[in-house]
Amino acid sequence: MGFLLSKSMDANFRRQQEFMLHNARLQMERQILMQNQMRERQMAMQIAWSREFLKYFGTFFTVSSVGLAVGAMKRKKPFLMAPIVPLSFILAYQMDSAYGTLVYRMRGEAESIMESEHDRLDMPHGTPTFDSIEKDRRARSSLSSLLEK
Q1: In this structure, which of 33, 43, 81, 115 has its CB flanked by the most CB atoms within 10 Å?
Q2: Which sequence spans correspond to the domains of the chain?
């Protein structure tokens, strides 16, 4: 009788473990999907910001370029056109960021760094562990209790 009871309990225990593993897997998948959606939204906001900034900077660049060109021709001083050079680099960068392939090139470079220069990505003192976080938490909690006294 005891054998049948323990066999039934073992089966229930295994099913419960499988259920918990399945739930943990679902939770992890949901967490990954949520984080990816948040990343996508942040990137979309960055691209939208670049496009909006480009509109304002493009207008500024156009007005400045026309003004500098007119001023240079009226005063016959071609060096007045010099600020157009750095402004055009900024405009080109913003155009590439907003509508070009900058994101794809950055992603490719990031993948290259992760593959061939992974040591640059290491954190100081390594990846935090539960023990290191708990040790720090205990140190801070004992410190704060001492400060309160």
Answers
A1: 81
A2: 9-118
